[in-house]
Design a protein that fits this description.
Number of helices: 3
Helix content: over 70%
Number of domains: 1
Order of helices and strands: HHH
Largest sheet: none
Distance between the termini: 49 Å
Radius of gyration: 17 Å
Number of strands: 0
Protein backbone atom coordinates (compact mmCIF):
# COMPACT_ATOMS: atom_id res chain seq x y z
CA UNK A 1 0.00 0.00 0.00
CA UNK A 2 2.81 2.42 0.88
CA UNK A 3 4.50 1.81 -2.48
CA UNK A 4 1.25 2.63 -4.25
CA UNK A 5 0.87 5.90 -2.38
CA UNK A 6 4.45 6.94 -3.10
CA UNK A 7 4.21 6.00 -6.79
CA UNK A 8 0.89 7.80 -7.16
CA UNK A 9 2.27 10.98 -5.56
CA UNK A 10 5.44 10.85 -7.69
CA UNK A 11 3.41 10.27 -10.85
CA UNK A 12 0.97 13.07 -10.04
CA UNK A 13 3.80 15.53 -9.34
CA UNK A 14 5.67 14.45 -12.48
CA UNK A 15 2.54 14.75 -14.61
CA UNK A 16 1.63 18.18 -13.28
CA UNK A 17 5.24 19.34 -13.66
CA UNK A 18 5.26 18.22 -17.29
CA UNK A 19 1.98 20.02 -17.98
CA UNK A 20 3.22 23.22 -16.31
CA UNK A 21 6.65 22.96 -17.94
CA UNK A 22 5.09 22.40 -21.36
CA UNK A 23 2.81 25.38 -20.90
CA UNK A 24 5.76 27.56 -19.88
CA UNK A 25 7.78 26.43 -22.90
CA UNK A 26 4.94 27.24 -25.26
CA UNK A 27 4.30 30.58 -23.52
CA UNK A 28 7.97 31.58 -23.65
CA UNK A 29 8.39 30.45 -27.25
CA UNK A 30 7.31 33.92 -28.36
CA UNK A 31 9.87 35.61 -26.10
CA UNK A 32 13.19 34.74 -27.79
CA UNK A 33 15.26 37.28 -25.87
CA UNK A 34 14.55 35.56 -22.54
CA UNK A 35 16.19 32.15 -22.32
CA UNK A 36 15.59 31.71 -18.58
CA UNK A 37 12.71 29.29 -19.13
CA UNK A 38 12.37 26.82 -21.95
CA UNK A 39 14.12 24.21 -24.00
CA UNK A 40 17.75 25.24 -24.31
CA UNK A 41 20.38 23.64 -26.47
CA UNK A 42 22.96 25.08 -28.84
CA UNK A 43 20.56 24.60 -31.74
CA UNK A 44 17.54 25.95 -29.86
CA UNK A 45 19.19 29.24 -28.86
CA UNK A 46 20.93 29.77 -32.20
CA UNK A 47 18.10 31.93 -33.60
CA UNK A 48 14.67 33.27 -32.72
CA UNK A 49 13.06 30.87 -35.20
CA UNK A 50 14.91 27.88 -33.70
CA UNK A 51 13.94 28.99 -30.17
CA UNK A 52 10.28 29.19 -31.12
CA UNK A 53 10.28 25.82 -32.90
CA UNK A 54 12.10 24.03 -30.07
CA UNK A 55 9.88 25.37 -27.32
CA UNK A 56 6.63 24.93 -29.21
CA UNK A 57 7.46 21.33 -30.12
CA UNK A 58 8.84 20.36 -26.72
CA UNK A 59 5.99 22.13 -24.94
CA UNK A 60 3.43 20.18 -26.97
CA UNK A 61 5.10 16.87 -26.18
CA UNK A 62 5.34 17.66 -22.48
CA UNK A 63 1.74 18.86 -22.21
CA UNK A 64 0.40 15.78 -24.00
CA UNK A 65 2.67 13.43 -22.07
CA UNK A 66 1.81 15.05 -18.75
CA UNK A 67 -1.92 14.94 -19.45
CA UNK A 68 -1.75 11.28 -20.49
CA UNK A 69 0.35 10.53 -17.41
CA UNK A 70 -2.13 12.22 -15.10
CA UNK A 71 -5.06 10.33 -16.61
CA UNK A 72 -3.19 7.02 -16.36
CA UNK A 73 -2.16 7.82 -12.78
CA UNK A 74 -5.80 8.32 -11.83
CA UNK A 75 -6.73 5.11 -13.67
CA UNK A 76 -4.01 3.35 -11.68
CA UNK A 77 -5.79 4.26 -8.46
CA UNK A 78 -8.98 2.62 -9.71
CA UNK A 79 -7.06 -0.45 -10.92
CA UNK A 80 -5.33 -0.68 -7.54
CA UNK A 81 -8.70 -0.87 -5.79
CA UNK A 82 -9.57 -3.86 -7.97
CA UNK A 83 -6.16 -5.56 -7.99
CA UNK A 84 -3.27 -4.29 -5.87
CA UNK A 85 -0.52 -5.84 -8.00
CA UNK A 86 -1.95 -4.54 -11.27
CA UNK A 87 -2.38 -1.05 -9.80
CA UNK A 88 1.22 -0.93 -8.59
CA UNK A 89 2.45 -2.26 -11.93
CA UNK A 90 0.47 0.38 -13.84
CA UNK A 91 1.99 3.15 -11.73
CA UNK A 92 5.50 1.88 -12.52
CA UNK A 93 4.63 1.76 -16.23
CA UNK A 94 3.23 5.32 -16.09
CA UNK A 95 6.40 6.65 -14.47
CA UNK A 96 8.51 4.86 -17.08
CA UNK A 97 6.42 6.29 -19.93
CA UNK A 98 6.63 9.85 -18.59
CA UNK A 99 10.40 9.53 -18.19
CA UNK A 100 10.60 8.26 -21.78
CA UNK A 101 8.47 11.21 -22.93
CA UNK A 102 10.83 13.69 -21.28
CA UNK A 103 13.95 12.08 -22.74
CA UNK A 104 12.27 11.42 -26.06
CA UNK A 105 11.15 15.03 -26.36
CA UNK A 106 14.79 16.17 -26.48
CA UNK A 107 15.60 13.62 -29.17
CA UNK A 108 12.58 14.62 -31.26
CA UNK A 109 13.19 18.36 -30.89
CA UNK A 110 16.89 18.09 -31.73
CA UNK A 111 16.08 16.04 -34.82
CA UNK A 112 13.54 18.64 -35.96
CA UNK A 113 15.99 21.47 -35.35
CA UNK A 114 18.72 19.63 -37.25
CA UNK A 115 16.39 18.93 -40.18
CA UNK A 116 15.17 22.51 -40.32
CA UNK A 117 18.33 24.48 -39.56
CA UNK A 118 21.09 22.10 -40.51
CA UNK A 119 23.92 20.43 -38.69
CA UNK A 120 26.06 23.53 -38.11
CA UNK A 121 24.31 24.74 -34.96
Amino acid sequence: MAAMIVLTIVNAITSLSMILGGWCMKDYADKPGDHSIGYRSKRAVSSNEAWKLANTECGDIWMKGGTAGLILTLCGIVVFLINNYAGNSLQVVVLTLMTAAMIGSAIIVEKKLKNRFGNNK
